[in-house]
């Protein structure tokens, strides 16, 4: 009988074990690589991580390998994915909420009151109050206990487009299509002074200064179609700073946890402002990884698939130009080339024999200047998006010896409007000192202290991250305090991106699009994870459950849908609205969902 030596035992253990490297969500190792038994599952890994981190109270963790949650022993994952075990297997350890939100599955109330479409709904930071803004020019506060209207607030002259609660829950600010803002007292439904005026066009966004930076809450920033952002002081009841620099409308605004303000605009840029003097401190430049931007000639002479170019406008055959009312340059009908124009899903053909010889590529610019570059190509096929925005082009060039080559050109960075911004710390900025325990606070100083602790715990040692979504179908992940260039470009949507939103734990980014889908991305790397399909109309807005396990979406198709992040499947379909759903919000305490839309009613949903 052969006796196992110590060396043989070690070899057998290595064969039955897997070399793993446990990391936090930012990729920082929790310790050295270690051998783990192949039958180790989430429960075993939880014990190891809590021991490594010396957690006095055992915390729950979820474990991810290549963005796939580990819900079975390691050996099951290895067999399923045929993973090589020659190198250490990285396992991301994600802290989980110690509470669990139940998925909403029924409509608990349909509340009438608004005379026009409900354009915005928002729960207070503690989840105990609800407000809505409507096309009927009113703001309404709702009694969540009786599920009836509480206050009807009049004062706006036009549609109420956006509302925002202060992080301490003491104020609600509303902005209208007339350009004025009103600060309301939620306890009485009364305005705190006269409307705040200064913007020349309608309000597109509102964001409050985080309470961990300044308590009690006093300042907020508003963004407007007029191209300016303004900082207001509710105590002084006036504008204290005007942030000017964008050349077109500002579409979205966020006040970050580091004290700076981010604005996204129709001029395709994102600007970063300091808030003591209102100075521009950085413009986030769309130059991926800091590489030089190629010229049009370099694009045409490249032999590969082109991405991230600096092309502005369109590439066209060399023709006498005919300009449409929308400014698009079309070829002369007599030109012997082929141009396909895609408009609202209808493909029109301008055909002729494909000419062999010299063609010119034209670079069209917004100011009308045209730079011509000669190039030989067989034909150009041009694609124009359904919304006449986010122009993209596909160039085909045929060679007898190599078949057809394809070049796809797109401007580095956003090629059209920036529609939405999201911060990785957004949930703790919104809720301030309030968490799932429902604890109340006796002073602003106490709230500030707790809010700072929550913010620091959420951020850890990693920088605050920003995601932008655009009309050009793309998204970018930024670390604004690390670099003015994006960390990564996120592509996959087939139409404009309406809304982007980080999960409360910062692990995921969700995006809603006119292409009828919701997509899920890794919040640290920007890597695509999953697509949620089920809506039959554009998706307007999304909202997360407080535990980051569920995602809510509202659509033009009149439904809400709840998606399960672990299984990547539809959890609950919520029909009930009779028309488009414009706005949705999941209460920070996780108990309720509110939705409003074109049918003029507010709906409350519960589990």
Automatic annotation (TrEMBL):
InterPro entries: NLE, WD40/YVTN_repeat-like_dom_sf, WD40_G-protein_beta-like, WD40_PAC1, WD40_repeat_CS, WD40_repeat_dom_sf, WD40_rpt
Ranges for the WD repeats: 111-152, 153-194, 196-235, 243-283, 490-531, 532-573, 574-607
Entry's Gene Ontology cellular component terms: nucleolus
GO BP annotations listed: ribosomal large subunit assembly
Gene3D superfamilies per record: YVTN repeat-like/Quinoprotein amine dehydrogenase
PROSITE patterns xref list: WD_REPEATS_1, WD_REPEATS_2, WD_REPEATS_REGION
CDD domains in alphabetical order: WD40
SMART domains recorded: WD40 (SM00320)
Signal peptide (residue range): none
Subcellular location: Nucleus, Nucleolus
Domain spans labelled NLE: 18-78
Main localization of the protein described in the UniProt heading: nucleus
Keywords: Nucleus, Repeat, WD repeat
PANTHER family, per the entry: NOTCHLESS PROTEIN HOMOLOG 1, WD40 REPEAT PROTEIN
Protein name stated in the entry: NLE domain-containing protein
